[in-house]
Amino acid sequence: MSDHASPTATVPAGTVPAGTGADADGETATRHGARIELADVSKIYAGQEEPAVESFSMVIPAGELVCFVGPSGCGKTTTMKMVNRLIEPTSGRITMDGEDLLSLNPHELRRRIGYVIQQIGLFPHMSIADNVALVPRMLGWDKRRTAERVDELLHLVGLEPGRFRSRYPRQLSGGQQQRVGVIRALAADPPVMLMDEPFGATDPITREHLQNEFLALQRRLRKTIVFVTHDFEEALRLGDRIAVLGERSRIVQYDTPDRILAEPADDYVRSFVGGQAAIKRLGLIRAGDLDLLPAGSASLPSVRVDATLRDVLDAIVAHRAQRIAVVDSDGRVRGELDFDSLTAAADSGGAR
Amino acid sequence: MPQRATSLALAAVTAVTILPLSGCFGGDSVEAASGSGDALKGASFTVGSKDFAEQIILGRMTVDLLKANGAKVTDKTNIKGSASTRKALVSGDISMYWEYTGTGWITYLKHTKPIADQRGQFEKVAAEDLAKNSIAWIDPPAPLNNTYAFAVRKDKADALGLKSLSDLAALSRSKPSEATFCIESEFSTRDDGFPGLLKAYGIKAPGAQVKMLDTGLIYTETAKGKTCNFGEVFATDGRIPANKLVVLEDDKKFFPVYQPALTLKKGTLEKYPALKKIFAPLAEKLTTFEMQKLNALADVEGEDPEDIATSWLEDNGFLK
Amino acid sequence: MTAVATPASAPSRRRSLTGVIGIRHLATPAVVVVALIADYLWVHSLRLDSIEQRTLNSGYLVGRTAEHLKLTLVATVLIMSIAVPLGVLISRVRARWVPPLVLGLANVGQATPAIGVLVLLTITVGPGVGVAMTSLVAYSALPVLRNTLIGIQQVDPTLIEAARGMGMRPAQVLWRIEMPLAVPVVLAGLRTALVFCVGVATLATFVNAGGLGDIIVNGIKLDRDPVLVTGSILTASIALLLDWAGGLVESALRPKGT
C-alpha cells in the first residue's frame, strides 16, 4: 500500500467515492483506482506478419470500469493482458498513475493488479481462505492481517466466513466460486483489476445476480477495471465506458454507454447495439436520478429509486398507469414519474 | 549335470557371444532319406532336450539317429528349464531326452548325498528311477562327466602352481586373499556343492570372498580375474578352453558324477528294444574331451547345434 | 519363517499412524498374512532335506527378504530423485521434441530385458549391488518419469494462467500449483515402479546382489517346490504390501479438495 501516492486524487470529479462511507463501518481503507494509459501499444506474435494489436492508445480514468467489447479474436483479451504483462507488448507504453509498467518486474506488477478469468481458476487443492490469501501472502502480509482480510472479503460477497473459509472450491456452487474469484483478485486491494469475461460461464440468472452484486461492490470500491466481454448487454449494464473494438483491437468507438446508444459511430457499432437502442438507453438511467414530479395523493403503482427507467416503462405499460410512484428503500414516496419524464430523460441522455 | 536350464541369463549371454538357436522347434517328421536300417520303421518319437548347447547337440544327434533307423521324429529340443524337460517326459509330451546321473539322483530322486563311484551312481539312479517312476535309463551312460569343477585362468594357475582342489585348499590358508570364488547361488545350498566342498577339502572361503553370479557370468568374470580367481563351471563347457581357463582336478573325487544317459519311459523301451542297440554305441563315443569340443563349436564359434550334431555323426560313421 | 511375523504387525502400526485405514484397506495385508501362514504351516508339515533346510531357515529367509526390500526401496528412492526432477525438467522444456525423446529413452530402458542390462553391466564393470541397482533404476524409472510429465501436463492450463496472473513466479507456479496437483499421478507411477522393482530385484541373485531371487532360483534349479513356493510367496507378499502402502500414501498425500 506504500508505493501509491494518494491514488484517490485521480478519481474524476463528480464521482464521489462511496468507499469512504464503508470505512466507517470498520472495513480497512480501500485504495481506489489508478489512471491507466496505453500509448501506441502493439503486439506482433513471432512468426506472424499481421499484428494482433496495432497502435492501441487509450486513457482509462481512475476508478472507472471500461468494457472492451468486440467479436472473438479481435484482440481485446490480448490488449487487456498486456496491462499486467501476461502478454508482453511488442512496442508502446503503458503507465499506471504515470508509472511505466514495462519497466517493472512483471511478477511484482501482477501482484498489484487483480486478475479474474472466465474459468475462475480457483486452485482446487487450496481452501477458499488459502485461495483468497495467496496474493497477500506473496506480498508478505502477516497472518492476522491476512486472515482478517479474508474474512472481510468473504463477508463482502455474502459468504459467511465461518462456513466457507475452510471449504474447498469443489464444494461451492458456480456463483459462489465466481464470487471467490473476484475477492481473490481484490485481496491485496489492488488499484486496478483486469477481468476477462468473468461471468461468461454462469447461467443467465446467476449472471445477472453476480453483475448486480459486482456493480454494487464497484460503486463502493471505485477500482479502475478493464472488463473484457463479448456481451454488449453486460457492457451496457456494467461499464462506465465501453470500448467497441474491431480487428487488431482497433478502437471503433470509446464512449459512455449512453452516448454509444445515442450516437453509434458507424454501422459496426450499430450492429453491436442492435435494435431497441432507445429502450436500452432507458435501461441505463435510474429512476432516482431524475427530477421527480411532486407526489400526489392517489395511490399509484410504485418502483424503487434504484429501478431503471426501463422498469418504469414496464410498470406504466403493465398497470396502464399514467404515473408511477418512486419509493425509497423504506417505502417512502419520493415523487412520481410519467411517460413524458421518460422521453425527456432519453432525449437529454439522462442524469448520469 | 547340474541344471543350467533355468539360467535366465542364457538369452542375454547368447546375444553377446554365441549361438543362434535356429530350427530347434522344426517339428518336422520327415522319413529319414538314408539310414543305417529300418529297425524303427513305423515308430514315431518326440525328442526333447534342455536349453543349453550340450543338451541340444545330444538331442539333435538323437533325432538324426532315430530318423536314420526309419522312425518318424518330432523335434522338441531346447525346452526351457530342467524341471520342465523332466516333466515333459513324465507326462508323455516327449518320448526321450538325455539326463545326467547326478541330476536324476539329487534333483528328481531328492537325495542329498551323491555316490562317488561312476558306475555305482548310474546303477543306483537307473534302478531307483525305474522302480519309483518307471523311467528307464539306457545303459551305458556316456563316459563324459559334465560335473561341477573349479576353473582358474591358466596363467594364474601356473603362477600359483595350482593343479588340484587340494592345491586350492592349501592356497586358501597360505594366501587367503587369493581365494576368491564365483559360484551360482544354487551351488551354495547343496550338499554336493559349496558347503560340502569346503568341508571335504578344508578350503577357507570367507563370505565376502564368495560372489554369487549367473552361470554365464562366471566364465567371463573368472576370465577377467577381478571379481574372483576361481569359478564354478561345468566340466564339459566349451567356454573353459575358449576363455583360457583350466579346470582344477577333483583329486578327492568330491563332486557327484554327471554322466548323460538317454532316459525314456519304461514302456517305450519295452516296445522298441532296438533303441538300446542304437544308442549304446553313440553314448560310448561321447567323452568329456569330445563334448567340450562340440560345446565350444556352439558356445564359442556360434555354429548351429543341429549342424554340429549331424556332421559329428557323419564324421564318426553313424550316418552315411 | 520369522518373516511371517513382520507383515502381520504392519496394519495396526499403520492405523495409529495415519488413521485413514478402513476395513477395506485391510484386505491386502489379510491376504498376505493368510498366504504366509499357509506357506509356513505347509513347509512345517514337510520333512525337509538338507538342501531345503539350507534355504528354508529363518536366518536365510529374513536375510534375503531384507536384501530384497533394501534393493527395492533404495532403487525407488533413486528413481524418485532422478525421474521426478527429470520429468519436471522436460515438462519445462519449450522444444516439443524433447519429451518424446526422453520418454523414448526411458522406454528403451524398460523394454530392454533387465537381465540383459544386468549381464552387460556386469561384464563391463563387474558384479555387485551397484549393477543391480542401476538396472533396477533403468528398468523401473519410466512409469515415474512418464507420470511426472503427464501429471504436470494434465494440470488445467487456466489454473496456471490464474496463478501467473496473480503474480506467481514460475517456481511458485510449479511448487504451489503444478506439483501438488500432479502428486496423485506421480504416486501412481511410483506404485507401478515399486512393483516393477520387487519383480526385477529377483534377478539381483545373478550378480551377487542377493535378494529373494536366491531362493526362487534355487527352488527352480534344484526342483525343490517348498523352496520355490516360499520364495515366490515372499516376493509376491512384498509386492502386494508395498503397493498397498503406496496406496495409503497416495490417499494421504492426495491434495485435499481434489
Could you explain how this protein is built, in words?
The complex is a heterotrimer of chains A (352), B (320) and C (258). Chain A has 352 residues and is α/β, with parallel strands linked by helices. Chain A has 2 domains: 7-112 and 190-274, Rossmann fold; 281-348, CBS domain Like (Alpha-Beta Complex). Helices cover 36% and strands 20% of the residues of chain A. Chain A has 14 helices and 13 strands. Chain A has helices spanning 19-23, 76-83, 106-111, 128-138, 143-156, 161-164, 174-186, 204-221, 232-238, 257-262, 267-273, 277-282, 309-319, 339-348; strands spanning 36-43, 53-60, 65-69, 91-96, 99-100, 113-117, 192-196, 224-229, 241-245, 251-255, 302-304, 323-327, 333-338. Chain A has a 6-stranded mixed beta sheet, sandwiched between helices. In chain A, strands 2-1-4-5 form a 4-stranded antiparallel beta sheet, with helices on one face. The longest helix of chain A has 18 residues, at 204-221. Chain A starts with 18 loop residues before the first helix and ends with a helix. In chain B, strands 7-6-8-5-9 form a 5-stranded mixed beta sheet. Chain B has a 3-stranded antiparallel beta sheet with strand order 3-10-4. A two-stranded parallel ribbon of chain B has the order 1-2. Chain B folds into 2 domains: 10-145 and 257-315, Periplasmic binding protein-like II (D-Maltodextrin-Binding Protein, domain 2), CATH 3.40.190.10; 148-248, 3-Layer(aba) Sandwich (D-Maltodextrin-Binding Protein, domain 2). The two termini of chain B are 31 Å apart. The radius of gyration of chain B is 20 Å and the shape is globular. Chain B has 320 residues and is α/β, with parallel strands linked by helices. By secondary structure, chain C is an all-alpha fold. Chain C contains 11 helices and no strands. Chain C has helices at 5-18, 27-45, 50-55, 58-92, 98-111, 114-125, 129-153, 157-165, 170-200, 213-221, 225-253. Chain C is flat, with a radius of gyration of 21 Å. The chains are: A alpha/beta (352), B alpha/beta (320), C mainly alpha (258). The B-C interface holds B 2-3, 5-6, 8-9, 11-13, 15-16, 81-83, 86, 106-108, 110, 112, 184-186, 188-191, 195, 211-214, 216-217, 220-221, 224, 226-227 and C 49-51, 54-55, 113, 115-116, 118-120, 122-123, 126-127, 203, 205-208, 210, 213-214, 217-218, 220-223.
